[in-house]
Amino acid sequence: MPQISRRYFFYGTLLAGAIPSAGFGSAKSLTRLGYKSPNEKLNLAAIGAGGQPFSDLSDAWAGVENVVALADVDWVRATPGFKKWPNATRYKDFRQMLSKQGREIDAVVIGTPDHMHATCALACMELGKHVYVEKPLTHTAWEARLLARAAEKYKVATQMGNQGYSHEATRVACEIFWSGEIGEVREVHAWHGKPGWPQGMQTIPAPTPVPETLDWDLWLGGAARREFTVGDAAYRQFCEEHGGKGGTFGYDPNFNFYQPFNWRGFFDFGSGLFGDWGVHIMGPANWALQLSPASLISVEATKREGGSSFTYPVRNATKYEFGPRGSMPPVTIYWSDGNTGPAYRPPDLPAGEPMKVPDEGPQVGLVGNRGRSYNLIFVGSKGYLGTSGRGEGVGLLPASRWENYKLPPQYLQRSPGANIDNDHKAHCRDWIRACKGGAPACSNFSIAAPYTEWLVLGAAASHYDGKLLWDNQKMEFSNNKDATRWIKPSFRKGWNIKV
Question: CB of 430 within 8 A of CB of 118?
């Protein structure tokens, strides 16, 4: 094993899951389905057949596996999947799919809105099905912890769809930090621009007829009952006015008020930019710094602008405080969204000097990702380290330090195909290898669930002013009992879940 600073050597237990001693595919899976040869085809199903789940299933399938069943509450949205796999049996209710074809299905891709991730995943895991669940893993912290327990109980192969964990640059960022190059890190800044969907609406439009191809009640699932609406003139005007200069959305006739995409901004269905992009951007920090809800001290919304009674604020700034982890010192993670430019610039960086020069220094990862500006910066006692996109780019700051830098020896095994073909495909196929008896996928639920748990607490904090103190054992905010209601959802009758 390459040499690594003693300060960070204690992460060997974590890395064991990501670096099997004999490489990927070296360890047999302890699943109910038993070991499958890498050459044996899996029978795949999906809950969601269009949009992101269609992309996930396509990459997992890769022209090699079998796709036997597709469930989608909206058969217009599901058209891409229905066309690509015409022989797959079609369902609107995923529960019927599992009941009728459960014996035939080996693994399931889940790409529903956030509020149904845990419900769908648990139903599959209870039947011994491997699951790939889109990011964020769950809507709430309580559901994340529940899925971690379920993964331990049912012994299935799992993966969260944060493909940044398969990017080489994310792993290089960890290796640079663990080598001691930038010293101790007590501060990290991460940010994103404005949401790509409408947030901040003040009124809910009047109900409109439900399209014949959509099962609205199933779409709601465990969420509180409400009427369907496509929106109205006031809603369309809001979208146009707030999606103008500097905005990222306008009115799109293909999207209704809630679905198929705008749900991300609603409290009851999504987690805003915390779960959409924060889970990508803060991934390198989570991995390198070994963050967890067990070491979380507090969460605080330091800015909330453009909010409403049912959507997340248009602009957020959030501070997560973590205590020591092993020999690492306490660290504060600063997240902000709704930005029109970088939210942080190292104070000692010379004026006018760019934070990143694309063609200088070691060229890591896929070519198309190398030029992106940093959106996360580790502030170290000996320097700065930046990552970009979903963790697709990496470099030291200032750029002159990166220009002649020699990368440390590789400590984390690379995800096969990530730098040759497509990082998203590599992430999905990483899960397929685990389904067939390989080593646990790089973002399996033992890793993804604790990460999601602390991350979505930022969404919970966006409802309040002031610091919320986290009690990990009781799984509550010790100084704000009302805030605890955003940690565990209230399910509609008939939709409760438990392990």
Answer: no
What is the domain count for the chain?
Answer: 1
β-pairing verdict for 315-322 and 476-477:
unpaired
State which amino acid sits at residue 480.
N
Instruction: State the CATH number of the domain containing residue 150.
Output: 3.40.50.720
Which residues form the domain of 93?
16-165+426-451
Type and span of the H or E element at 319: strand 315-322
Q: Which residues pair with 161 in a beta bridge?
A: 134
Q: What is the pLDDT of residue 494?
A: 95
> 86: number of CA atoms within 13 Å, CB side?
1
For the segment 389-434, what is each residue's pLDDT rounded down to a tens digit?
999 899 999 988 999 999 999 999 988 877 766 789 999 999 999 9
- pLDDT tens-digit map of 31-57: 344 456 676 899 999 999 999 999 999
- Phi and psi at 378, nearest 5°, equal -80, 125
Q: Is 107 a domain residue?
A: yes
Distances (CA, A) of 282 to 274, 387, 498: 10, 9, 29
Question: 317 near 336, Cβ under 8 Å?
Answer: yes
The DSSP code sequence of 440-483 is PPTT-HHHHHHHHHHHHHHHHHTT-SEEEEEETTTTEETT-TGG
Phi and psi angles of residue 442, each rounded to the nearest 5 degrees, phi first: -65, -25
* Inter-residue contact 196 to 250 (CB < 8 Å): no
Q: Look at residue 272 and tell me if it is in a domain.
A: no
Rounded CA separation 341/319 (Å) = 19
- Give the whole-angstrom CA distance, residue 130 versus residue 29: 11
User: CA 197, 198, 203 angle in degrees (round to 5)?
Assistant: 150
Give me the residues of the chain with pLDDT under 50, please: 1-34, 245-246
Please indicate, yes or no, if residue 413 is contained in any of the structural domains: no
Q: Percentages helix, strand, coil for the chain, rounded to the nearest 5?
A: 30, 20, 50
Enclosing H/E stretch for 243: none
**209-243 pLDDT tens trace:** 999 999 999 999 999 999 999 999 999 999 888 77
Cα–Cα distances in angstroms (integers) from residue 14 to residues 11, 18, 278, 324, 431, in the given order:
5, 8, 22, 17, 18
Q: Taking each helix axis from N to C terminus, what angle separates 445-461 and 141-154, rounded to the nearest 10 degrees?
A: 170
- Decide if 34 is inside a domain: yes
Per-residue H/E/C for 155-198? CCCEEEECHHHHCHHHHHHHHHHHCCCCCCEEEEEEECCCCCCC
Nearest-angstrom CA–CA distance, 430 and 324:
31
